[in-house]
Specification:
Length: 228
């Protein structure tokens, strides 16, 4: 069982949306997923309620429960536990980060988002967690996306699929679906499937240490400097 936490302080970056869509894509790819929701906003529980009996299973938990819940889940047969968090400055987000094999940090290509992940990154480094940035809600073509990608890649691992801002994400959420269910042949679905394939490889290779990321950062950093 591997645990993936979706973390960043900034609300609206796409933690819950990516958590939902990657969980659905992972199940479509044959994995079993349990989502732990630590955000009282309950975006995912509300979404799950409108799905009826369809997976993935969703449980709302408090920060203090996470160790017990993770121990119980280790005896269950889930391939993945996805943990959705409210933000890194909360006890819940830190507990989730501690429990995670991989931290995913969604970031929109906006100055506010690019500033907001700094405390998250500090916590990730302090806990020596493997992590990756995911560029989300990117406009289809913009210098901002290139600048943000270059900047994020220089700081650490950046997923090689940028998730573009698309209506499918909002429409699917409202209908209790993932984008791969809502519009299986759409571009949002294609991006999410490719992103899941990338994350799946990443989490299987995650050692819990940052050595690989630091090595990668060195090479990506060089690329960044060269491109600048
Ligand atoms: N790639 C995307 N394209 C379009 N809308 C998106 C995308 N990602 C997220 N959203 C929308 O942005 C809003 C905030 O996303 P959410 O996942 O709730 O952020 P967070 O959990 O980080 O606060 C939601 O209304 C969601 O539907
Ligand atoms: Mg959320």
């Amino acid at each position: 069982m591997k645990a993936i936490a979706f973390v960043t302080q900034k609300g609206g970056s796409g933690k819950s949306t990516l958590c939902i869509n990657l969980a659905v894509a992972a199940e479509e790819a044959g994995a079993s997923v349990c989502i732990l929701e630590m955000d009282r906003q309950a975006t995912i529980s509300d979404w799950a309620e409108s799905r009826g009996d369809k997976g993935p299973e969703v449980a709302q938990i408090e920060a203090a429960q996470i160790d017990d819940v993770m121990n119980q889940l280790r005896n269950a047969s889930y391939d993945y536990v996805f943990i959705d968090t409210p933000g890194v400055d909360s006890a819940g987000a830190l507990a989730a980060l501690r429990a995670a094999d991989l931290a995913l940090i969604p970031c929109r290509p906006t100055p506010a988002d690019l500033r907001a992940f700094k405390p998250t990154l500090a916590a990730v480094y302090r806990l020596d967690k493997s992590f990756a940035f995911i560029l989300n809600q990117a406009p289809p073509r913009s210098y901002r996306v290139r600048d943000a990608s270059d900047g994020l890649a220089a700081l650490g691992m950046l997923a090689d699929v940028a998730v573009i801002s698309r209506n499918d994400h909002q429409d699917a959420l409202g209908m209790g679906q993932g984008v791969t269910e809502f519009n299986p042949s759409g571009q949002a679905a294609d991006e999410i499937r490719r992103l899941w394939a990338w994350v799946d490889r990443r989490v299987k290779g995650a050692s819990g240490k940052n050595a690989d990321f630091i090595a990668n950062r060195a090479t990506q950093g060089k690329k960044y400097v060269k491109a600048a």
